[in-house]
């Protein structure tokens, strides 16, 4: 374990291929966790995120599902545009673990680049857990009233509706969404508060 920790502190992007190779072809199950931690440490301290992502992506397709899962979990740390398609392509994987890791990687994506993918999961996934996680993250990363209005129509629970009401812009573009929510007893109080907030800004 200490050897892997040392690698995490010292490996450069030019040496990442070998470290990732230890994750792809581990000697034991413990090595997967240790290698993952070391790679994550390298990713976090390295400024060249593209080089980090490319090193991982080169070995992703050839990795077994158990390694694929861990590699997908690492990609949000670098979150480059070239990494996103690799995650997206695994959302419908036949392997349960890979599919779960891909969805959760999109949910963990640190910016709005995965917004369209999250929305697609909300609309198409059979898993309520995935739909809820994806919708919550979509609401967090989007800001337009049009996008939030769509999120409101897709919300299955009051919690996510409340998130939308709290995130809506304080202008006239939000009025229709808020007005419709006034008829929903579960979020009526929040809708009234949102309407007052908007009215104060546009009067």
Provide key terms for this protein.
mainly alpha, 13 helices, single chain, elongated, 71% helix, 203 residues
Number of DSSP helical runs = 13
Helix content: over 70%
Distance between the termini: 62 Å
Strand content: under 5%
- Number of beta-strand segments: 0
| Topology pattern, helix = H, strand = E | HHHHHHHHHHHHH
Give a verbal description of the structure.
This protein is mainly α and 203 residues long. 71% of the residues lie in helices and 0% in strands. The protein is built from 13 helices and no strands. The longest helix has 17 residues, at 29-45. The model has no long low-confidence stretch (mean pLDDT 92).
